Every structure is written in C-alpha cells, then in structure tokens.
Amino acid sequence: MVAMSLLRPALGPGARAFLLRAGVIAGRNQLASPPVSTGVIRKMGSNRMQVLPSRFEWERWKNDIHFYLFLGFAPMGLLIMYCNLVTGQAELTDVPEDYEPMPWEYYKGPIERWFARYIYEYPEKRYERTLHVLWEEGERVKVRKLEKKVRALMHDRQDYKGWYYTPVDKSRIDAAHKAQKSWQEDRTGTRIP
Prior knowledge:
Complex I is composed of 45 different subunits. InterPro entries: NADH_UbQ_OxRdtase_B5_su (IPR019173). By secondary structure, the chain is an all-alpha fold. It is built from 6 helices and no strands.
C-alpha cells in the first residue's frame, strides 16, 4: 500500500478517480472523505420497483381485433362499393303478362337480391312449412280428443283399464270379482246378483 500511495501524485485526475472507484487506492482521509461522485447515484434499498400487471393480453387482443376487422371490413367495403357503383339499384319497370317474377327480383339493391336468391329461403317454402306444422298440430289435437273420449268411455262403462292390447289372463280378474262378491255376501248375509 505504501508503494501505491507514493504513486498518487504521479497519477492524473482521471486515472486517480478510476482507481478510487475501484478501491485500489484510498482517499486522503478515509473516515471523513465523501463518496466519489460519478454522475449516477444508485439507491438500491430506498426505491422499490413497482409491480404492474402486464399489458400483453390487452395489446394482443387490440391488435387481433384491428387485424380481423380490417381483414373483414376492407374487402366487404370494396365489394359493397363495387356493387353499388357498377350494378346499381334496380329500377321499377312494367312486367309482361306471361312473366312471373322470381322472389329475389322484388328487392332493390344488388346485395339484397343476391342474399334473397342464394341465402334466404323462398316465401313459398316458408309458407308450406308453416302449413305443415299447423297440420301436424291439428292431428295431435284430434288424437288428444280421441284419447280423452276413450278414457271417459272406459270410466263410464267400468271397462278394463287398458285401451290398448295387452295379453291378460281374464280368469284372474273374474276370480277377483267372485271373491269380492262372496266377501260382501258373507259380510251382509244377502246374495248379490
């Protein structure tokens, strides 16, 4: 260390500051010497780093939305502009007597006509399907009324409970009726016809 202190005056100010920072040489008064200023002061313990949630998901979602919106809206906008500029709106004209217009010919815009022709179903088809649904419901109502009438007749006539065919041994039912009649005769003492 003594050799280094003898070299102190020979060092220039830049080299001396470097050696002081590196801890190779000590300052004049180690106890009272202020720390060497390097321009950047790091406070490791006093300033805490703020932990913030990541914005990765938000940025990714926003970028995806912009990408897919422009992927869909740009071509659709160009298609709509082309259809309206080139094809244009339909004009109302007289229809010949022997000609029956197709359902898509009633729409004014070219895009509406395309949807009515290739995507939507014809009104006649919708009408026929509605008629079929109404017919099926009417048939169900008829069957329900018939079932109600059958149940009422079975109740009035004291008939067997099954109005559909089930192979049943009738002798057991008749034996049960005989047993009930004999039990009532024994209890009352009179013969029941």
